[in-house]
Amino acid sequence: MADTQYITKNRLSQEVNTARVWVAIIGAPIAGFLMYSLPNFWWIVGLAYLFSVIGAASTKRSGAKGELKTLKLLEKLPDSYVLFNQVDVPNSRAKRGFTELDLIVVGPNGVFVVEVKNNNSKVTGDEQSPNWIAHKVGRKGGRYTAKVRNPIKQLKKQVHVLAEHLKKNRASTWIDGVVFFSHRSARVKLSSPTSVPVFERKGLVDYILNYRPKRSPSNFEKIVQQLALLKEGNIQK
């Protein structure tokens, strides 16, 4: 079993719980105020507020489930692999001052950044497009589409930011990226071959185990140490 000592409670799950608390604490007073000041229309505003909170919470809940499901798969790796989740890597070019990486795997045959998507639909696109298209079916059978940020572009930025950080801290190494669609209903149809592997539901663990780098990491412990320091910084925020 892989080393999971650096796995912490999923941040998205915590944010969902926080959203529920805000609905309970703030939602009720707002509804009361609106009932008093807008007796004929308060319910419209109240419902809009409620649906916005529920929608955001639903997206985060789905993301959390995807990451947890992927972690369960990665835990099957041998104990020579170390897992990290939700690592904030300093990035002066990002609005928040850091770039969040879903999952990182450090093993004897390389370092892997895993970008997790939990879409329960067919997704189409290509590597160069800024967005991919998710083809969805509504509860009543109606079909519609929604834009999804191109995960390959996201992943490449994450790999670049992490590589820069490790190099700056004398833990330079080659980093590979993988996109993983974790939902059992995910179907990915891309119009052309991609420069990074994209898996749906399975294949991730076998890919990592069978990966043959041109040169294996010679500074394994230094890399783990630097990632552990980032996790420690995350906890202290």
From TrEMBL:
Keyword Transmembrane helix listed: yes
Membrane-spanning intervals of the chain: 19-36
Keywords for this protein: Membrane, Transmembrane, Transmembrane helix
Domain NERD per the UniProt entry, residue ranges: 62-185
InterPro entries given in the database record: NERD
Official protein name in the record: NERD domain-containing protein
